Amino acid sequence: MSAVMTAEAPPHSSARRKARPGRGAFWLIAPALVLIGVFLVLPYLNIIAMSLRPTAVGAPYGAGFTLGNYAHALGDGYILGVLADTLLLGATTVPICLLLGYPVAYHLARTRSRWGSLLYVLVLSPLLVGVVVRSFGWLILLSGNGVINRVLIDLGLVETGLQLMNNRLGVTVALVHVFLPFMILPLVGVIQSIDPTLEQAARSLGASRLKVFWRLVLPMSWPGIQAGTILVFVLTLSAYVTPVMLGGAQVKTMSVLVVQNLIDNFQWPAGAAQALVLSACGMVAVWVYARLTGRFMKGLQ
Amino acid sequence: MRTKRKPLASRVADAIGLAYVGAVYVFLLLPIAVIVLMSLNAGEFLTFPPQGISLRWFGALFANEAFMRAIGTSLQVAAIATVCSTVIGVAGALYVVRHATRLREGLRMLLMLPLMLPEILTAIALLFFLYASGVGTRTMFGLLVGHVLVTLPYVFTNVASSLYNQDGSLEQAARSLGASPWRAFVRVTLPLIKPGIITGALFAFVISFDLFNMSLLLKGIGMTTLPLQLFDYLRWDFDPTAAAVSTVSIVVTLVAVVWVDRTVGLRSLRFG
Q: B29: closest CA among A172, A124, A182?
């Protein structure tokens, strides 16, 4: 039994058999490294090379290298407009997700209800049901003859159906629904790690609920807010299905434009350059946001 | 604990808060509930309110060869991708938690990378790479690689967190009592991290079953998965068959989630 308790230096084990951390077990990580190295890192290097290829007729790309695709992506008013629209979509979806998600995350983290598990499934369910199915649900709800318009007309609130989709409104509503779980889940984790006795202590010392929230809970849940907002922003920028299904021809995002370039127009270098411009914009936005909020977080301490 | 009644203002605030939270839960559930309701519609169209209850659209679905083939493909791809990403993810988690020293954080980040990069950009990059390397999309290979990449982080993070929560000295104890490394792993560590593996694998399956962007760009020639088929169908038709097929996919997910909750508990689930 003593051999078990002093596991660091087991007296009876043969030195040869002792598990050595490190090199001997390298084969465990090798498949993951091969997968990610060959099928993620190399393709990303390749897509950068592709974005520098000239366009060609009758083939996806031509020989040699050029910066023309970037010049076109950054100089074309239409593409810049789509890029601005995409960024704006992210910038509106994120705060709505935060406003809707934070109270739910707090409730989920603190509830002792026996329905807690069920509510957790409810929050998870949109995440696990595919994005096409969820967007289809919004299609049924928001279309001209859809459920919401039917109810509004039957209640006599409107004469004719409202235009709820094929515009930014429909896309934003569906995007919020699709990405809300990605806001809630990191927040639940962080809020659960805040000791509830801290809140009780602050309350017993005379702080109002609002003050407890503002001075204690909110600052302490900041890492979760940051993770959730960045996640939702990045996901929104690269969303494809929802803008196509609920935006129709009216709302065009960069992802839609890029996929069109690749699949319909067969213009790989142009599509690659546009995809990379979008990703670069997203990364810059996230970096600026992290810098600003980092300063804000320091100010709170 | 507290015997004193809360002041009125506080109770009103509680009620408003609860109503707000309840409204968000309804918002989350609404589109899914509406699909299930529509799939049971006896009428010809996706009209509201439904004109009676019927299973006719499920009949239409089972008679629709394209949908049935797509469901078959999706199940097949999800099953293969789940097995691959579970094996790779469990091994990777074992290395990162038990053996990696200086490199631990870096390796963890690397294995989570597919989750942090935009799926559509990864899909595009993979498409170009498959063509550049001459593999192309004639076979299911590219599609499977894409699905394994996307689902790997879910397996890895769930298994890694159950490994962190479990005492590594138990395995060392088994080793010191003469068990081979394999035996010690199978008899001691594996049963202890089983919840993490089950959760990871099930989420890998569910996510792969519903994956769209990867499948859109990497599907083999003449191949289609369920989300792609539904997406295509909705471009031309807007009838309750689409609701029926969506309901089938919702039920598949629900069964998986409830099963995980019953066996290991959903709260063991980790994201990122």
A: A124
